[in-house]
Design brief:
Layout (H helix, E strand, L loop, with lengths): L1 H10 L6 H4 L2 H4 L28 H4 L58 H29 L2 H13 L2 H10 L3 H16 L23 H7 L7 E4 L3 E4 H17 L7 H18 L1 H9 L4 H20 L66
Antiparallel strand pairs: 1-2
Length: 382
């Protein structure tokens, strides 16, 4: 080669020497037109291919800097097909120098922001289910079977009639004077003609004043205060930070404004026990639908509670259709469902295809024991 170079220098020849000096394997890495490179079909550019409009004698001498994504091949190492590395498992770091730009890595969906305490809530839910299945549920069903219907209805009406002043106050706070006046009319009619609220005369003809649910938690939601974290508490059941705070304010109104007998244990304990039995017996079928017929009883209970609470707030804004009684009465039927945004992340991510579904089902085992009814203590001033 040195002899050829000396000869060329002496003769001043203009012969192109690049094809003779560069090994054929190295010329394969010379890219003359990156846009014309047929990458989509996995074809390789033939060595020495000419650029359209370029003289063949200049094609071999034209050198373009190599693409930053490709390195010149080693002439001594034969080309071998490369296999892309498998996608990393969840929680593993990418190998050094590896770029995930062209990889599809499917990971589990994060937990919804409304339930950051899911682990604690689920444990409380499981314990509450056991207690409810062993004690509360059987006692409530016995109460429903043994106590005559008119007596149970009278107890129910009496307890809810005592909540009408709280409903009235919150309608005023929500600047709804019409509904506030109707609530006062209900309370006056049922407290007099209805024998201190034992009979709900106000909902009948000619008055036709339905019972409405309202409370300080509803007022907070009406003015845009968010739910805060979801909670599942023993003796309380499903609730949120906003509903827990609002329910506590509701319970303090009558004792603070009226005093005795609402401040005495002789009233508070029997009223609390009867209210819990009445509520649990009314929601017995709803709980069976939510728990026995649901693949995830905890998630179904959480979704049921949060959706009904949102329906109450929407109704105050004149949106949607919901029961005026709100959380204080059971729905006519329950179709178990777990909305996507409330579903916890799957335990084993699917690494074959991306998660693009709009709905999903769970294969978790059923839990036969029911839990306490969705609490109405927060939104309705109980």
């Amino acid at each position: 080669m040195s002899v050829v170079m000396v000869a060329l220098l002496l003769t001043g020849s203009s012969v192109e020497i690049l094809p003779a000096l560069v090994p054929p394997a190295a010329t394969a890495s010379i890219h003359m037109d990156l846009d014309a490179l047929p990458r989509a079909r996995g074809q390789a550019m033939p060595v020495g291919q000419e650029t359209p409009g370029q003289d063949p004698s200049q094609a071999a001498a034209t050198t373009v800097p190599p693409s930053p994504v490709a390195e010149p091949a080693d002439p001594a190492t034969p080309a071998t097909p490369t296999t892309p590395p498998p996608p990393p498992q969840t929680g593993q770091a990418l190998p050094s120098g590896h770029s995930p730009q062209n990889d599809i890595v499917v990971t589990g969906r994060k937990e919804a922001a409304g339930d950051p305490l899911r682990a604690i809530n689920a444990e409380s839910f499981a314990v509450t289910q056991k207690v409810d299945g062993a004690v509360v549920g059987p006692v409530a069903r016995t109460y429903k079977k043994t106590v005559p219907g008119p007596i149970r209805s009278g107890i129910h009406n009496f307890l809810y009639n005592l909540r009408e002043p709280i409903v009235f106050l919150n309608f005023l706070l929500q600047l709804k004077p019409g509904k506030a006046v109707e609530t006062v009319g209900r309370f006056a009619i049922n407290s007099t003609i209805g024998a201190v609220g034992v009979m709900d005369i106000a909902k009948r003809k000619p008055f036709r004043l339905p019972r409405r649910s309202n409370g300080f938690a509803n007022t907070l939601g009406y003015y845009g205060i968010k739910n805060g974290p979801f909670l599942f508490l023993p003796l309380v059941g499903p609730t949120t930070v906003r509903d827990l705070f609002g329910g506590a304010i509701d319970r303090l109104i009558l004792p603070a404004a009226v005093g005795s007998p609402f401040t005495s244990a002789t009233y508070a304990i029997p009223a609390g026990v009867l209210g819990a039995l009445d509520h649990r017996s009314e929601f017995d079928q709803t709980l069976k639908d939510l728990h026995d017929n649901s693949p995830d009883p905890y998630a179904a209970s959480r979704a049921f509670y949060l959706n009904r609470r949102q329906a109450e707030i929407d109704r105050l804004h004149g949106r949607g259709q919901s029961d005026p009684a709100g959380m204080t009465g059971p729905p006519p039927s329950v179709r178990p469902f777990v909305p996507r945004d409330l579903e916890p992340a799957p335990s084993t991510p699917n690494t074959s295809i991306p998660d693009t579904s709009t709905s999903e089902t769970s294969e978790r085992p059923r839990s036969p024991a029911p839990a306490p009814a969705p609490s109405d203590g927060g939104p309705s001033g109980q």
